[in-house]
Amino acid sequence: MYLFYFILGLITSLFLNGYLNNFFLRRKLYDPVKERSSHKNKATRSGGAAIFLTLCFCYGLGRAFLNLDINLFSLIACCFVAFVGFFDDLFDLYYVEKFALQIFAGIILIQSDVYINNFHGILGIYEISELTAYIVSLFVFLVITNSLNLIDGIDGLAGLVALKFFIAISFILYFTDASLYLYAVNKESMLAYSLTLIGALIGFLIFNFKSYKKVFLGDFGSLLIGSVITYFIFSILHSGNQIITDNWINRSLIAVLLLIYPLCDTLRVFILRAKSGESPYLPDRRHLHHKLIDKGYSHVKASILIALLSISVLIFGFGTSLLIWNIDLSSILFEGVNIITTILIILAYMIFLYFKFFESKVLK
To answer: How many Cβ atoms sit within 10 Å of the Cβ of residue 83?
Structure first.
């Protein structure tokens, strides 16, 4: 049954990406080629619309025939964010306007009762007050949603990062006991959504990597996917649910590892822009993927390399946590040392990767 959602998402996405690309081209709604553009031929920002319509179609069928469930507030919030991106693609909204509308969408999402109400031992904190939970959840919503939008600067990058997330979360959900994952939306529905998005993203990436009939996500797509990812993150972090990895790795830590590249790249760029006295929301060429492009990597190679590096960080982090958990340093030192040690080792590995791949000599 789960395979059905993946196949349906893939076939629908392939059809809609091709159809909407032709639809946009006939009406001359293609992306202009500028100095910062990655494409030389006509390309359309129709990928977001194709993914959105794919989700709508698959949800409609699942709801009608397979008892697929969804939280109404989460649906409204994700759709609202998606349409903010849609209007930004058309009219180039000011970042202040986008930010204000995203805050409103985040508040709606929190009304779904799926939010971060527990730090799971990070910084020694577990349960948090309701007000703190709302504030933290709204902040995380804004960070994740915009981080995916900010890395969408070269072909395939945002799509591959999102694809990695949904593949990993699908494995986690598949092996999690359904009786432990019941809060707000059940395991079966969440897994169905994740597999649908995997199919939809693969369909998009096929067109995104083309040299002709090229399709971009646009803000419509990146903000939509970012908001959906946030809902999944909220779902696995809420204390009302349990996931299979709880016995081996801190839940907050694995949530960060699943999104390690967009979070780190966004933080790095914001710091660099702030140090230069520039607005953190204005585009530039300070992203990590620009470093690879300047070193001679093609867009495809740069995106694949970043995706592989982020996967390696996830695997390394999980393995490190499992090793430290087996050693159990807290039994001989102090409570929380396991998490601190794991984080420090992961940071050391990430620093190594940064200097190895992003600060090494330019390719010849």
So the answer is: 16
| Long-range contacts of the stretch 354-359 (C-beta < 8 A, 24+) | 357/292, 357/305, 357/309, 358/288, 358/291, 358/292, 359/291
CA angle 242, 245, 249 (to 5 degrees): 115
Burial class (CB in 10 A: 0-12, 13-18, 19+), 351: exposed
Q: What is the pTM of this model?
A: 0.93
pLDDT of residue 329: 75
pLDDT tens for 142-169 read: 999 999 999 998 999 999 999 999 999 9
Q: H or E stretch including 215?
A: strand 214-215
For every residue of 15-72, DSSP letters joined together read HHHHHHHHHHHHTT--B---TT-S-SS-EES-HHHHHHHHHHHHHHHHHHHS-----H
3-state secondary structure of 287: coil
Q: Which residues pair with 44 in a beta bridge?
A: 215
Which class for 128: exposed (0-12), middle (13-18), buried (19 or more C-beta within 10 A)?
Answer: middle
